[in-house]
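hiii so my PI (J.) wants the whole complex modelled not just the main chain, which honestly fair. so below is everything: two entries, each one labled with what it is. i double checked the lines twice but i was tired so who knows lol
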Amino acid sequence: MLAELLAALGPAGCLTGDRVAEAARSDASRSGQTLPLALLRPSSVAEVSAALEICHRHGQPVVPQGGMTGLAGGANPRSDDVALSLARFAGVEEIDPDAGTMLLRAGTVLERAQEVAAEAGFLLPIDLGARGSCQIGGNIATNAGGLRVIRHGMTRDNLLGIEAVLADGRVVSSLGRMVKNNTGYDLRHLFCGSEGSLGVITRAVIRLRPLPEARQTALCALSSYRAVLTLLDMARKTLTVSAFEAMWQDYFAFNQQIARLSLFANPPPFAVILEAEGAGLEPLLEQAFEAGVIDDALVAQSQTDARRFWEVREGHAMETALPGLINLDISLPVARLDDFAQACRAGLRARFPDAHVSFYGHVGDSNLHVAVALADNAEDGGHEVDRIAYDLVRGFGGSISAEHGIGTLKRDWLGHSRSPVELAVMRQIKAALDPKGILNPGKLLPA
Amino acid sequence: MLAELLAALGPAGCLTGDRVAEAARSDASRSGQTLPLALLRPSSVAEVSAALEICHRHGQPVVPQGGMTGLAGGANPRSDDVALSLARFAGVEEIDPDAGTMLLRAGTVLERAQEVAAEAGFLLPIDLGARGSCQIGGNIATNAGGLRVIRHGMTRDNLLGIEAVLADGRVVSSLGRMVKNNTGYDLRHLFCGSEGSLGVITRAVIRLRPLPEARQTALCALSSYRAVLTLLDMARKTLTVSAFEAMWQDYFAFNQQIARLSLFANPPPFAVILEAEGAGLEPLLEQAFEAGVIDDALVAQSQTDARRFWEVREGHAMETALPGLINLDISLPVARLDDFAQACRAGLRARFPDAHVSFYGHVGDSNLHVAVALADNAEDGGHEVDRIAYDLVRGFGGSISAEHGIGTLKRDWLGHSRSPVELAVMRQIKAALDPKGILNPGKLLPA
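here's the output for the full assembly
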């Protein structure tokens, strides 16, 4: 089989032994330990197709890999897997300025695609912290979320067309450029978010947007979660909201301190970063202050000011300050986020009295993150944290993964968010499109 | 089998013979001639499930029916089909004002759902001319387009959760309320647009939006299609565009005349209705006029003015004036719409020298309509029109159905817009979820 792959892809397209890069071991979760049997680097759709046809014939499992920035272990190989990287199939093929669309190859690094869009006078509306190394194919395969969801939706909401190679090597091309296209089953949304288990995405058409007007940013202090929801409602009605990020007191206080900032000397029960495109932020804040919705607000007068607000929100220093930090990514009906936070804090504290527990999230997108650091590295502590939190998520009708996906790390909890019938339907679809089960086996769907 | 259905659904839920309403014969395309074997009217998800379990066991084909306002024949039964109407399973079950979501039953008439949303202070962002009789289940099953697509997207773009009954009676419930939910395959988008061929939609969660600011409407005269595209680009960059409807000269002149209006005494090469929410329309028009993009513009000073613009665009009097009117619904990359119109006009005129041929459409959504009336009712004339137009659509990389769907009327043309591999994948999915092929057989997928 390796000889066939080598013949089909050439020496630069089929690496084995020492030539397999260390980076092929693991995504950014650092949960992968193993090098794959081979690392395939096809440079065309035809080569992706040829590689899959060969692997399919031999029953060889294939793990598609993008920029390896995922957080769920979805691209980590096992020792007898073949990894398939799209890195050599990169670049923007076409921009249609009238339609506002971009056709690009799966291996294109997101930031590069953003730059090409900006040069043509457009915003590429997908953006995330990993933009400098993640690839658009991986963004689509995981339906990446990120920083612009409240304004422009998830990756799938900006996807007009897709091309993928099926397990048996057939190329299924649905590279439509039209917003309206009611001609049968929507294959875009089937491959988007399927984490490489239904096909290898090779190209896509993305919808571009006009470049945004200047953004204004404020940091608001609020005394209740009800006030947070009221501010969100007010903002949605009058502003073009481009971020609405809430920090619970525990998170804000901790991160303000380690960042050595004093934005609110007395950390309020809730701190919200409200960012809007165009005008209207300050009048809205005045109105919210007069109505008693916010207790205080800092309006950024410069990029530096805004960066300070975001520094506390992003909390990059947390991982150093709290070794072994666990970061959960869940979503819940927005009205229940604080009820969940209270129940989750209580549940975790009951089991781990000395743990750090704090909450923050993209509240405008119903997305909550939970930061947990256990005082002692108790064996199975992480599993216990998952169990406590995900049992609550299930009770609240939420989702165990808002944006990071399932991969291997959440695979065994999937039944907390999807019913047995949903799982059965997913398995029926998987079996229909990949009957030999060679595409990313062991990921996403529990055994 | 009918005895079993009667026992499961009761006499009000299982109608046969004379008790089957005439309306069960055909959707609004008037292409259906036949009454079904029985008309099922379940009043709960459990009854839908029971009915499908019985039909599945007997290998009985089932045609799901909503408000029968479709235009592709997708809900028309054959004489040995059982029709299944959701009309008795109607109503809004829940509005979450914090999340801006509505949980409702499939049989809810769209207009009723819009009213309930408005009473709660929200816009239900799905709207179409048939609002008074279409049902939300049908809107989802056909991924309805309509009047708000440029602002809020197609039905699928406003769909957060879905519940459907599978062919064998299993209920698959994905009624999430969260914008972010990355937990495996997206079943919403699989059922949405599948035209009743994969499951019977029973409930859904729709995302609501803030009520819009007042709309301003203008009718603009332009002398080239390039100018139309430039105006669209300018409008998108500075306005919240809620409609951008272009009429080619042939369409505008004909409909202005039969409406006995004189909006532009000399019909321009292109007339565009531009509608925007909030402020900014008049400054934009001034700027466009100074830049030579528009030659003239009428700004509606009242609802009556705006209605006159829309009367010409909607062309309701056309069907009376042109008996046997054919209305094609296609989409193409927006830059190519006029190239297509010219080629299509030439192709149709070559075959039918005396035909009426005119063009209009939701240009902002890449959606073009072609109105054709043949002078003589030549046998197979409709088929010839389809062939000439859809052959061109294929050549332009367009879609043979922008918003109306496939049903039976476009089924045999589906291969003009979807590749053999795409069709094979659709059939694999269909076979996986409905192995006996009982759900809406003969629709959507060509034999």
